[in-house]
Structure formats: structure tokens, C-alpha cells
Write a structure and sequence with these properties.
39% helix; alpha/beta; 226 residues; 7-stranded parallel β-sheet; 7 strands; globular
């Protein structure tokens, strides 16, 4: 089994590497800061990928396909966040947020579908946020981030429909508060009830089995939101 994880140098992404290696999977980890993945393992390959640059996204996808004949699990975990009042968000803030959180996973996934679902059902897991979940509480300062995560959630539903005849399932997990660097950036001083390892264990197990029960679902995974 080959698992591809984006945004893998810190927080939940880094813990996902450990989860899948412990489950004897071949792991391809992508990060804009690959030196932060201070782990060597015969089943781990690290690829540098800057998801703020589309050229880097396409090159990273080609490197993945050169490294494996089939991708069984793709976890689109890479994300960026800007915390500013709506009136202060610049075009650059908006474009960078949407490029990393929506455009990059859109085209990265597009490039990999021809190496998914070949021998068994593949599973795309998009990592969204409760901020991108319909009807959930929204917070001032996160309009660009939350709306981009909402777009990722809807993209998941579209992928499930388009790829259902290709032996590929797609689901989206909308995470609540987890003690990560991104949470500290959005909500300084808030102490979440879950740590990255706890959430990574849940996501990892869902990635391995969730497609048996779900396709095209946007699921809230939240004990609390600030």
C-alpha cells in the first residue's frame, strides 16, 4: 500500500507519517520544508513541494508517479491560514490562501488519478475545517481560510461523483480544534482537547477503512471549536 501525504512536516501531517509507517505502508510525504521531517525509514520518501507555486505542484506529482506505480491513499493535508479582519485581507492574502487550500489539491489530485484505483479502491481524504462546514460556527478574521475550506469540502463531493466509475472514493474530514501551530495562529492561547497524534490516528484509520462506508461525504470531526 502506498500513501501520499501533503503538508507533512509538522502537526497532523507529521504524525500521519508515523501512523502509516507503523501500519507497514509505503509513505510519500510532501512538504515545502522537507528538512523538518527528521525521520529516515526504508518505506519513507520525502518530496519537496511548495504549494504556493503551481509549477512545484505539477513537478511534485510527477515525482510521486515516478516513485510508485499505484497510489492507494491520498491525504490532501497541506493548508495555509491568514488571520485578518475581512476589510484588511489583500488580493495576495486571498490568492495565496486559495492556491494552497483549493487550487493545489485540485490539480495535484488531478495529476494522480491515473495511478489510483488500479488494483483496489483508492481513497482521497481531503482535510478541511469546521470553519468550512455548512452551519458550523464561524469566526472573525478567518473569512479567506474558512471559505477556502468550504470550497475544498464541495470539491470533495464533486470528485466522488466524477471518480466513482474509476474505483476511487473521496471524502472530506472537517476538523475541529487540535493543538497545532495553525490553531495557535488563529486562536492564540486556546488549548484544544486533542493533540496532533490523536487526530492523526483518527484520520489514518479513516483513510484505511472509511471508503468502505462513505463516498462524497463531508464529515465533521470535532470535540470542540474555540
Amino acid at each position: 500500500m502506498t500513501v501520499v501525504i501533503t503538508g507533512a512536516s509538522r502537526g497532523i501531517g507529521k504524525e500521519l507519517i508515523n501512523f502509516f509507517l507503523e501500519n507497514n505502508a509505503q509513505v510519500i510525504a510532501l512538504s515545502s520544508n522537507p528538512t523538518k521531517i527528521k525521520l529516515t525509514h526504508p518505506k519513507l520518501q520525502v518530496i519537496s513541494a511548495d504549494f504556493t507555486e503551481m509549477d512545484s505542484v505539477f513537478k511534485a506529482a510527477q515525482k510521486v508517479k515516478a516513485a510508485t506505480k499505484e497510489v492507494n491513499v491520498l491525504i490532501n493535508n497541506a493548508a495555509t491560514l491568514v488571520s485578518k479582519p475581512f476589510a484588511d485581507i489583500s488580493v495576495s492574502d486571498f490568492e495565496t490562501t486559495y492556491r494552497v487550500n483549493v487550487q493545489a489539491p485540485f490539480f495535484f489530485t488531478q495529476q494522480l488519478i491515473d495511478v489510483m484505483g488500479i488494483t483496489k479502491t483508492a481513497h482521497i481524504v481531503n482535510i478541511s475545517s469546521m470553519g468550512g462546514y455548512m452551519g458550523s460556527a464561524k469566526f472573525a478574521g478567518l473569512s479567506a481560510y474558512s471559505s477556502s475550506k468550504g470550497a475544498l469540502s464541495v470539491l470533495t463531493e464533486c470528485l466522488a461523483e466524477e471518480l466513482k466509475d474509476k474505483n476511487i472514493h473521496a471524502n472530506c474530514l472537517c476538523l475541529g480544534a487540535v493543538n497545532t501551530e495553525m490553531l495557535k495562529q488563529a486562536f492564540p492561547g486556546y488549548q484544544a482537547p486533542l493533540n496532533p497524534k490523536q487526530m492523526a490516528d483518527y484520520i489514518g484509520n479513516f483513510a484505511l477503512t472509511g471508503h468502505t462506508y462513505f463516498n462524497g461525504k463531508v464529515l465533521p470531526i470535532s470535540v470542540s471549536t474555540p
